[in-house]
Design brief:
mainly alpha, DNA-binding, homodimer
DNA sequence: ACCTGAACACCGTTCAAGT
DNA sequence: ACCTGAACACCGTTCAAGT
């Protein structure tokens, strides 16, 4: 349903429109393997128009991944526990927010972590990918300062948290954490194990 | 370099040849996003020939993923610690074998865990994907029996191990565990955290 | 029983030309 | 400054026809 009438030739802000359209398409079957031509089609422009705003498809994907990391970062920083405010509650809230972000945006999350998509992961993207890790590092430092956590090198522990939570997210996304043999609450079990590895 | 002379028309075992060729192509840039036509080309047959052995590309990929899970399973069961034979050594050896398998076969590993590739992950594939998990479950049961591990629901702890090790593997593959900010030995740190979460 | 060649409906990307 | 249309070199998949 495109209005081809009110934008006779020049699209107001095609760049943003393309990103928005592609972001929406991420929620469909093919994930980030959508077609650039289809994006253009839905944005109401010719299939050549996107090339005036992005050198190629990979560049569009890279920009979208960047956006994704920003959103993940925001999801983690705005995550708050329901009621009490113990360190442990906050930690679990952040972990849950991370997993929720991934499982409710599987297409975007896969894109963010696919070196395959935007061919080479450039420095810019890698830097932005580490912002979420910064949240975890700060959280662990506070936990150690409060004497709740074992005294271990924080960056190493943060890496462990990241890997754990990334693994949970991906396996859930692939449907492998919903299988009987894996047990009833793999997510809770994984987070509990992680906490037992961190706490005093 | 195809011998088109000695196989004038009928290829002896084209099915296997296609799988082998595709498996080899997994190690190239595009990973499992290789082209079916290119597989046929390298196998020395027409681009239509593969369709006599696989209904579509997704079926070929599914078969390859199955093979991958078998190999991963074997890598885990044949993993042995260097010298001593404590439970802990064995656990670490299995974990390391898992990560090594993934990082040295990134194309295959990504394929195994991409619901995107073989469209729907069928029951067959999911079952085979759980064989590696079985190894971990057995390992944890022994550790608990020997009184080394906390008494927790084994399947839950096994899920935690899987997620941890899967996360490590993927983040390493994507190059995110080689970044300075993540620290010097994220892999070791992650495995150490996992062990501290399991052990008494 | 197994393979080929031509064909169909697509892609990503480029580029001269239009507004 | 921004967009289009035709073109190029590809895909995956199908199907009548060949051996």
């Amino acid at each position: 349903m495109q209005d081809t009438t009110d934008r006779p030739y020049h699209h107001g802000d095609l760049r943003r429109a393309l990103i928005d359209t592609a972001m929406a398409m991420l929620h469909e079957d093919k994930g980030w393997q959508f077609t650039l031509r289809e994006v253009a089609r839905r944005a109401g422009v010719s299939h050549a128009a996107p090339y005036k705003h992005f050198p190629d498809k990979a560049s569009l994907l890279a920009e979208m991944a960047l956006l994704g990391f920003d959103r993940l970062h925001k999801a983690m920083t705005t995550a708050k526990p329901n009621r009490p405010h113990s360190w442990r509650d906050e930690f679990l809230a952040v972990g849950q927010a991370y997993v929720d972000f991934g499982t409710s945006n599987p297409g975007l999350y896969r894109l963010m972590f696919s070196a395959e998509a935007g061919n080479a992961r450039d420095v810019h993207l890698s830097e932005r990918a580490l912002a979420p890790l910064g949240v975890v590092i700060a959280l662990l430092e506070r936990g150690q300062a409060e004497g709740l956590l074992r005294q271990r090198v924080v960056r190493g522990r943060a890496a462990a948290c990241w890997a754990q939570v990334h693994g949970i997210t991906m396996l859930t996304m692939e449907g492998l954490f919903q299988l009987e043999k894996v047990g009833p609450n793999p997510l809770d079990a994984a987070l509990a194990t992680l906490l037992e590895g961190l706490e005093n």
